[in-house]
Amino acid sequence: MQVPGRPSGAPPSGAYRTMTTRFDSSCSIADISRNNPAMGANKIKKKTKKSRPVITDRHILYEGAVQEVEADLDFMKRVFRRRHKRPLRLIREDFCGTAKLTAEWISQHPDNRAIGVDFDQPTLDWGIRHHFAPLGDIRKRARLICDDVRAVSGPPVDAIAAFNFSYFIFKERDALRNYYRHARSCLKKGGMLFMDAFGGTQSMTTNHEYRDISGARMPDGTKIPKYVYEWEHRNFDVITNHILCHIHFELHDGTRIEKAFTYDWRLWTLPEMQELLLEAGFSKAEVYIHGWQPDGEADSVFRLRKHYDNEEGWIAYVVGVK
Ligand SMILES: C[S@@+](CC[C@H](N)C(=O)[O-])C[C@H]1O[C@@H](n2cnc3c(N)ncnc32)[C@H](O)[C@@H]1O
């Protein structure tokens, strides 16, 4: 998960700077190379324009714009170690999608193990091809399960990660409480359920945010040409807190990928989540939120807090402790 800049509202994948310019598609390098030995001395060659690849794979664009799995894992390791005085080793990633976080976890330490759960087989297959196949034997430390997160039990784990607001698909209190109850039953004693949440005054509005993504890389390390990530709140219903969101992308050559992802969610509030965690049997429900830098950007330091003044947009981690 990425954190927001204060002025830009409350889209869920933060660090947003409202985009003011579109890409200039001219890439311009008409340099002249002299004395190229391949061409013979003193011959002059005009280099052709370097064509940059047009990446239309929505998972690559999503991962580059939305996910920060190292930061999420650092947070989980820190909070778990502080409570248990031992390192976190066995995790489950619910709603894992392409299971990038699971793959990163097993790559970080030889004793790390993980289970990833998602009910969409094509998305899991994409993750197997791009994240697990290149890992060789390391991939044996992970298991991917194609099923509903509420149906999977298996050996109890130290922690469950449910990131990028995936549990927002549960729209009724009973449904979210049942998910929490099930997740709790899959944890060891003292185990933790880690989730993220977003909110702020602009989260409960119809709006449209843009962010330039530069420097992102594909799973194989290839640099992705700069592109625009668009986060749209198409509707927000104040009676139900239901929110309909889309992710769109605009590539460097002008190609638009409309509605690359759509989310039909309920925007759960922090008090509701804490109450439901306790009702589901967790002994503690904790909220960690970042602070702000003087320039208005989020400081990315997530502290345990009991109170927090509302802002236009913020991101939190919510942790249930069994
Ligand atoms: C918002 S994506 C999150 C992907 C990834 N966790 C991330 O951090 O970006 C939500 C994922 O949850 C999966 N999903 C939704 N409901 C599910 C359920 N009940 N059981 C298992 N997977 C589910 C979808 O297939 C999708 O891949």
Write out key terms for the chains shown.
four-stranded antiparallel beta sheet; 6 helices; single chain; alpha/beta; 14 strands; 322 residues; eight-stranded mixed beta sheet; binds S-adenosylmethionine
What do these coordinates show?
The structure is a single chain. The strands form three sheets. Strands 5-4-3-6-7-14-12-13 form an eight-stranded mixed sheet, sandwiched between helices. 38% of the residues are buried. The chain is built from six helices and 14 strands. The chain has one domain (1-67, 164-322). With 322 residues, the chain is of the alpha/beta class. α2 (69-84) crosses α3 (100-108). S-adenosylmethionine (SAM) binds at residues 66-67, 95-97, 117-120, 123, 148-149, 163-164, 166, 169.
Task: Give the arrangement of secondary structure elements.
Blueprint: E1 32-34, E2 44-46, H1 58-66, H2 69-84, E3 90-94, H3 100-108, E4 113-118, H4 121-132, E5 142-146, E6 157-162, H5 173-185, E7 187-199, E8 207-213, E9 227-236, E10 242-250, E11 256-266, H6 270-279, E12 284-292, E13 298-304, E14 314-321
Parallel strand pairs: 3-4, 3-6, 4-5, 6-7
Antiparallel strand pairs: 1-2, 7-14, 8-9, 9-10, 10-11, 12-13, 12-14
Helix pairs in contact: 2-3
The structure holds S-adenosylmethionine.
- Strands of the widest sheet, in order across it, are 5-4-3-6-7-14-12-13
Number of strands: 14
Order of SSEs, N→C?
EEHHEHEHEEHEEEEEHEEE
Q: Helical segment tally? A: 6
Shape: globular
Spans of at least 5 consecutive residues whose pLDDT stays below 50 are 5-45
Structural class: alpha/beta
Return the average pLDDT rounded to an integer.
87
Outline the biggest β-sheet.
Answer: 8 strands, mixed
Hetero ligands: S-adenosylmethionine
Span of the ends, CA to CA: 23 Å
Percentage beta strand: 25-35%
- The overall number of domains is 1
Radius of gyration: 22 Å
